[in-house]
Design goal:
single chain; 406 residues; alpha/beta; Spore Coat Polysaccharide Biosynthesis Protein SpsA, Chain A; 9-stranded mixed beta sheet; 3-stranded antiparallel beta sheet; globular; disordered C terminus
C-alpha cells in the first residue's frame, strides 16, 4: 500500500502488556477500514511483548515496529508520531481494544465535516471482573448536548462543560497535518499526560465532531497500571494542571470558567492525596500545598468562586494555611462536618456511618452533641469538632445524635 493511500495511522505504545497485546492488535487488524497502518512502539518491554509483536508483524504487513529504551507512555507516543503517514492519527493503548468499525466511522465523520478531531464514546472494562459498564458521562459523552450531534463545533460551544468530557488521547481521531502544524507532543516524563496534550490543541481547533457510538474499550482496575500503584508519580498532576490552566488562560472566557476548573482540579488532587501510598503522602502534600500557594490571590479570592463553591474554597484554604501534620487533623474535621451534614440532610434515621477508622453512631442520650429546634430549622452542635450547622426542619421526629469514636 502506498503511503498516499493510508487513511489512518494507529499508534500503539507498548510496555510489558503481553497478557493483553494480542487482543489489542487483533481488534486493530480487524478494522473495517483497511487503509490503515499500525505503528507499534515497543517501549523497552521485558515480558515477551516484543516476541508477540514480531509474530504479528509477520502476518500483517501494515504493522510497523519501532523499538526504543523505556521512557514512558508520552515518550512512546511521541516516538511513533513522526512515523505516521496517514491523513489522520489515532492512539490505542496496548491493554485496551476497539470495535471493528471504530476508524471507519470516525474517518467518515472527519471527512464529512472536515474535522480536525473526532471524539467517540468509551466503554469502561473492569479488568478484575471482565465487566463492561457505561455509568460515567465523562466517557459516554453524556455532557455533550444533542445540539452538537451531526455538526462541527469549536471549543466556544463547549466552554460550559469542556472540563467534564474525556481528554484521553485514545478515543479520538486527529488530523495529522494539524498536529504537525501545532508541533503537538505529549509531555515527556509525566503521567496524566493527556490533559496538556488535549488543551494544547483543542483551543486552536475550528472543527470538532462527536460520534456517540461506543467504539473504544478502556481497561480499568488493572493491577500493574501506573495509576494503580499510587506512587510518587502522582505529583505529576501539579505540572499537568498548571499546563492546562495556562492553556485555558489563552481563551477569551477564562474568567467565566476558572472557578469550575479550579474546583474540578482540586477534587482530582484531593482524590490523589487520599489514594496515594501512605509513605508518599507528605511528599505529595508538600507539593500540593506549593501548587495552591502559587495560584494568584485574585483568582482564589474571587467572590464568585467563594460564593459558588464555598466548600472547595474552605478546603483550598486548609491546604494553603496548614503544613502536612496540621492538615491531617483539619481535613478529618472537615470530613466529619461534611459527612454529618450530608447524612442529616438525606435521612436522620440512618444512625451509623464511618469516616476512615472512626465510627459514628446515633444514640438517644447524647453527651458531646446537642441539637435543638428553632423556627423552621434544626441546629446541630458537635462541641469537640467546634461545629454548628443549621438547615431547614424537614422531619417531625428526630433521634438525638452522639459520637462513638473508637
Amino acid at each position: 500500500m502506498a503511503n498516499s493511500d493510508i487513511k489512518v495511522s494507529v499508534i500503539v505504545p507498548i510496555y510489558n502488556v503481553k497478557r493483553y497485546l494480542a487482543k489489542c492488535l487483533d481488534s486493530i487488524i480487524a478494522q473495517t477500514l483497511k487503509d490503515i497502518e499500525i505503528i507499534c512502539v515497543n517501549d523497552g518491554s521485558t515480558d515477551g511483548s516484543d516476541k508477540v509483536l514480531a509474530e504479528y508483524a509477520k502476518k500483517d504487513s501494515r504493522i510497523k515496529i519501532v523499538n526504543r529504551k523505556n521512557g514512558g507512555l508520552s515518550a512512546a507516543r511521541n516516538t511513533g508520531m513522526p512515523y505516521a503517514t496517514g491523513k489522520y492519527i489515532g492512539f490505542v493503548d496496548s491493554d485496551d481494544y476497539i470495535e471493528p468499525t471504530m476508524y471507519e466511522l470516525m474517518y467518515y465523520n472527519a471527512e464529512h465535516f472536515n474535522s480536525q478531531m473526532v471524539i467517540c464514546a468509551v466503554h469502561k472494562l473492569d479488568d478484575s471482573t471482565n465487566t463492561v459498564f457505561d455509568d460515567d458521562p465523562y466517557y459516554t459523552l453524556g455532557y455533550f448536548p444533542k445540539e452538537l450531534d451531526n455538526r462541527a463545533f469549536t471549543h466556544h460551544d463547549t466552554k460550559d462543560f469542556f472540563q467534564d468530557f474525556c481528554v484521553m488521547a485514545w478515543n479520538k481521531l486527529y488530523l495529522r497535518s494539524f498536529l504537525e502544524e501545532k508541533q503537538a507532543r505529549f509531555p515527556d516524563g509525566y503521567i496524566f499526560e493527556d490533559g496538556p496534550f488535549f488543551t494544547d490543541i483543542y483551543f486552536d481547533m475550528d472543527k470538532v465532531t462527536i460520534v456517540r457510538d461506543y467504539l473504544y474499550y478502556y481497561r480499568v482496575n488493572r493491577a500493574n497500571s501506573i495509576v494503580a500503584k499510587g506512587d510518587k508519580n502522582f505529583t505529576d498532576i501539579f505540572f499537568v494542571v498548571n499546563k492546562m490552566l495556562n492553556n485555558l488562560r489563552k481563551t477569551d472566557y477564562f474568567d467565566e470558567v476558572k472557578a469550575y476548573f479550579l474546583r474540578k482540579k482540586f477534587k482530582d488532587m484531593r482524590y490523589r492525596y487520599q489514594v496515594i501510598q501512605n509513605r508518599y503522602k507528605k511528599y505529595y502534600y508538600d507539593r500540593w500545598r506549593k501548587f495552591w500557594l502559587n495560584i494568584d490571590h485574585d483568582t482564589l479570592e474571587d467572590e464568585k468562586f467563594k460564593e459558588k463553591y464555598p466548600y472547595t474554597y474552605r478546603n483550598i484554604r486548609l491546604v494553603r494555611e496548614n503544613d502536612y501534620f496540621h492538615y491531617k487533623k483539619e481535613f478529618f474535621i472537615e470530613q466529619c462536618k461534611h459527612k454529618v451534614m450530608q447524612i442529616l440532610h438525606m435521612n436522620p434515621k440512618v444512625y451509623t456511618f464511618k469516616i476512615g477508622k472512626f465510627h459514628f453512631c446515633v444514640k438517644k442520650r447524647p453527651k458531646i452533641l446537642d441539637w435543638w429546634y428553632e423556627t423552621n430549622k434544626m441546629v446541630v452542635v458537635i462541641p469537640w469538632l467546634k461545629f454548628r450547622c443549621e438547615f431547614p426542619f424537614m422531619y417531625t421526629e428526630l433521634e438525638d445524635w452522639e459520637d462513638a469514636v473508637k
